[in-house]
Structures are given as C-alpha cells and as structure tokens.
Amino acid sequence: xxxxxxxxxxxxTLGGLTTASTFVLEQPxxxxxEVQGGAVIWLVVAIPKxxxxxNDTVGPGTPERAFQGFPTSAPAYMxxxxxxxxxxxxxxxxxxxxxxVGSETSxxxxxxxxxxxxxxxxxxxxRVKFLALKGSRPVAETxxxxxxxLRTARPFSGIPVMGSGRSAxxxxxxxxxxxxxxxxxxxxxxxxxxxxxxxxxxxxxxxSEPVTVRRYNTHHxxxxxxxxL
Length: 229
Fold this sequence. Notes:
- The chain is an alpha+beta fold.
- The protein has a domain at 1-152: Sandwich (Immunoglobulin-like), CATH 2.60.40.
- The chain is built from two helices and six strands.
- The strands form two sheets. A four-stranded antiparallel sheet has the order 3-2-5-6, with no helix packed on it. Strands 1-4 form a two-stranded antiparallel ribbon.
- A hairpin with a 2-residue loop joins strand 5 (127-134) and strand 6.
- The protein is elongated, with a radius of gyration of 45 Å.
C-alpha cells in the first residue's frame, strides 16, 4: 500500500537537525496503522538518482542494500528496522519522537552488519522513505522525502585570518588608540614615581631647641625656714 505520508526532518526547535554526517527525522507515528502485526518497518536511504528505479523486492542485508557499499555499489541501503510497537499511536505528549540517521560509527566498515546506521559519506543530497516488510514481502511504504542536504565543513583556506579584510580607517583608528593608551600609561607611571618620592623625602624635621628650667625658691619658704631656726 502507498501511504499518504512524506518523511520530514524533525522540528526546527530541536538542535542539530543536520550535521556533516547525520540528520534527524520525525518518527512515523500513526502512519502504519493499517499494517498487520508482525511487520517490520525499515528506513530506506538513497541517492536521488536511485529513487525512480528502486526495487522494493530487494531485501535488506543484500549486497545491493548494504550500507558499506553506499553509494557506489549500493545506491540505496536499509537500516533502523523496528516493529510497530516502537511507533505507538497516538504519540505521548511531551515525548521526543525522532530518528537520527547516521549515528553508528562502530559498524561503518563491518560488512557483517550491512544494515548499519553508519555516518553518511558526504553532504548529499539524500532521500528517504519508510518501508514495511512482512517477512520478505513489502506490505506498505511511504512517499520519498524531499532532498536532504547535510552541513559541509568550511575549508581551512576560507577561514578569515584575524586582521585580514580590515579597512584603512579601522587600522588608523586602532593605531591612534594604541598611542593614546601608551601616553596614558606613561603618565600614570610618572605620577606614581613623583608621588612616591614626595612621601619618602619631602618631609623635614628640625632639631628642637633645648628647654631650660630655672630653679627658684619662693620668699615665704625661706622665711619659714629662718623662723624655725
């Protein structure tokens, strides 16, 4: 059965929707509701030129559908197989229901795992669809997605070097500010030196004059002594 569903990237509120080797899809919740139990849902990843000639009867795990041959000898591969139990309907509120395509690195070169969900080999574009198999027989499929492009790393030569691309006015302004800062710094240093010399040697102390205390006797003390004699 051809199902009226087109796979899409996850919500834009989720970060990292596309990287250099992965992308994130919404899970096909409430899509395969008419499919009988026991079916297995597969994700098919293909290059655009393989879409029109894709053969649903070529099963997963075969050389024509192995990830390790993608995209040279296998223009499409099948991965992320699961049962309908993992795509319950309706979707629980608040639950993040996404699939990250290209997240397995351990099996990327392991030919014993042809259904590996390995990192995508280039920026794309890629197109995907979901395919339900009961045994080896296709029972339902979705539409193909729109082309999906991945991020590309900027070449080292394209990274702007600090200082390149500045105008002459910006360079002149930077030079003037540097000179003014140097003048201000020199002024502060001179002020600190002057203030320090004033504190250390600016105050003088004069020698105090000797204090002379004259001894005297009052007349009434002498008169009392004479009287006692």
